[in-house]
Amino acid sequence: MKSAVVVFPDSNCDRDAATALEQTSGIKPIMVWHDDSSLPDNVDLIVLPGGFSYGDYLRSGAMAAHSRIMRDVKDKAEKGVAVLGICNGFQVLTETGLLPGVLIRNIHLKYVCRVVGLTVEESQSSFTRSYRKGHVMKMPVAHGEGNYFADDETLDRLEDQNRIAFRYAEGENPNGSARNIAGILSERRNVLGMMPHPERVCDPALGGIDGRGLFQSLVKTLS
Amino acid sequence: MTAITQDIVSEHGLSDSEYANIKRLLNRDPNLVELGVFSVMWSEHCSYKSTRAHLRRLPTSGPQVIQGPGENAGVVDIGDGDAAVFKIESHNHPSYIEPYQGAATGVGGIMRDVFTMGARPVAMINALRFGSPDHPKTRHLVSGVVAGIGGYGNCMGVPTVGGEVNFHPAYNGNILVNAMCVGLARQDKIFKSAARGAGNAVVYIGSKTGRDGIHGATMASAEFDDHSEEKRPTVQVGDPFTEKLLLEALMELMATDAIIAIQDMGAAGLTSSSAEMASKGDSGIELDLDNVPQRETGMTAYDMMLSESQERMLAVLKPGREKEAASIFKKWELDFAVVGVTTNTGRLVVKHHGDVVADMPVHALAEEGPVYERDYVSRPPAAPLRADTVDQNKSIAESLSRLLASSDLCSRRWVWEQYDTSVMANTVQGPGGDAAIVRVHGTNKALAISCDVTPRYCRADPLEGGKQAVAECWRNLTAVGATPLAVTDNLNFGNPENPETMGEIVSAIDGIGKACSALGFPIISGNCSLYNETNGEAILPTPTIGGVGLLRNFARMATIPLKRPGDAIVVIGETKGHLGQSLYLREIEAREEGSAPLVNLGVEKRNGDFVRSLIEAGRLDTVHDISDGGLLVAVAEMCMAGGIGAKLDLPNSIAFLFGEDQGRYIFAAPPEMTKEIIRAASAANVPVALIGTSGGLDLEVPGMGKTRITTLKAEHETWLPNYMSAR
Question: Residue A38 maps to which CATH number?
Answer without folding.
Answer: 3.40.50.880
